[in-house]
Write a structure and sequence with these properties.
Length: 165
């Protein structure tokens, strides 16, 4: 796990709320605090969609950020900066095998419960933290280190400046 301070918040927010930079992630949960706190449970409710299963979302547990982003943007935009917000993102379950293979990690995909990116804003500071969850406890930090490196590369490749906290 690493904690990163975002150095320039305004460009990050453009990536976060306007661009598609984070659309490849699923939203596990989130909250936005303005004049009240809005909470989002990212659990994907398949019964709401009219699709017949052809969308590829049948195995999905959490909602893609792309489907929530504009709703969150409508909560955050305005003259005043939110007091706080926090979002917990996950690499989609179907992307985990590719991540493990590309990272050269030889564990079974069923051992990975989640690869997380937390985005939190409070006191005019924006912090990103990474996290991993495995089914079995291990002292081996290979998955953690690979995920941390992936997120740092992800940010750098998109021109998002962040430094370790």
């Amino acid at each position: 796990m690493i904690a990163l301070n975002v150095l320039d918040i305004k460009p990050f927010m453009k990536h976060f709320l306007v661009g598609s930079t984070f659309d490849s992630f699923d939203l596990s949960e989130g909250s936005v605090t303005t004049f009240c706190t809005f909470s989002i449970d990212g659990t994907y409710l398949k019964e709401f969609d009219d699709s017949d299963g052809e969308s590829g979302d049948a195995d999905r547990i959490f909602i893609p950020w792309a489907r929530v982003r504009e709703h969150v943007f409508s909560l955050i935009r305005g003259r005043q900066t939110p007091l706080a917000f926090k979002f917990v993102f996950m690499l989609p379950k179907q992307a985990v095998p590719g991540f493990l293979a590309k990272s050269g990690i030889g564990i079974d995909v069923s051992e990975v419960t989640g690869l997380f990116l937390n985005v939190s804003f409070r006191n005019r500071k924006l912090m990103l933290t990474t996290g991993t969850s495995l089914k079995t406890f291990t002292m081996d930090r290979t998955v953690d280190n690979a995920w941390d490196s992936y997120i740092q590369s992800f940010l750098k490749s998109r021109g998002i400046a962040a430094e370790k906290a």
